[in-house]
Design brief:
This protein is mostly beta strands. Helix content is 10%, strand content 47%. The protein is built from 2 helices and 9 strands, in the order ααβββββββββ. The chain has an 8-stranded antiparallel beta barrel with strand order 1-3-4-5-6-7-8-9. A hairpin with a 2-residue loop joins strand 1 and strand 2 (60-66). Helix 1 (2-12) packs parallel to helix 2.
Length: 193
């Protein structure tokens, strides 16, 4: 598919301060491997938005808000022979996979107006998408990491939408046990070049 290959080469160059060339709303599922994965290659920055943490212990449940974090973390995507690995300062290499549009996953957080569920941080993106999040390419990676105060390793999963070649936005989900109870956290995450 020559047009798709030309798009990949055009987008793979350095990201300049210009309007995005790729609109995630226009990328078909059959183009994920050709367009979406190669475009990820390179250095990105992650911003952690608001979220919620739910702690369950002995039949009691407590929910607390997580405020946005002003600190940004470097994230690196490495594309090699059809595979993408993601890494950062506090994480190993994790394989990134595309999520089929028809796959329904529970990956939102009730931070919208009136407690409505949201799946991407529109306040953190420069240009909102022209379609609903369920039509955007979705990417996922997961693994385990150390977490202060946890009883052992915490399992995490990141599910982001590709808005364009410079912006990913979605949710980070974390599950672990601590002090005899269970901890479940969901937080908005936006990753940009």
């Amino acid at each position: 598919n020559l047009p798709a290959l030309l798009t990949v080469f055009a987008l793979a160059g350095p990201a300049l301060a210009q309007a995005p060339q790729l609109d995630g709303c226009d990328v078909g599922v059959d183009e994920y491997d050709e367009i979406v994965l190669p475009v990820l290659d390179g250095a990105w920055t992650a911003a952690h938005g608001a979220g919620l943490v739910v702690v369950s212990n002995g039949g009691q449940t407590m929910t607390q808000p997580i405020p946005p974090d002003a600190e940004r973390d470097p994230v690196n995507f490495t594309y090699d022979d059809g595979r993408v690995l993601v890494s950062g300062p506090d994480m190993a290499f994790y394989e990134v996979e595309t999520v089929p549009l028809e796959e329904s996953t529970d990956y939102s957080v009730p931070l919208g107006e009136g407690g409505s569920e949201i799946a991407l941080d529109l306040g953190a993106v420069e240009t909102p998408p022209n379609c609903t999040p369920d039509l955007l390419p979705r990417l996922r990676w997961s693994g385990e990491m150390g977490l202060e105060g946890a009883d052992g390793l915490a399992h995490f999963e990141v599910i982001v939408h590709m808005l364009n070649e410079n912006t990913l936005s979605g949710i980070m989900i974390l599950n672990t046990s601590a002090a005899g109870g269970q901890l479940h956290a969901r937080r908005l995450i936006t990753i940009t070049r």
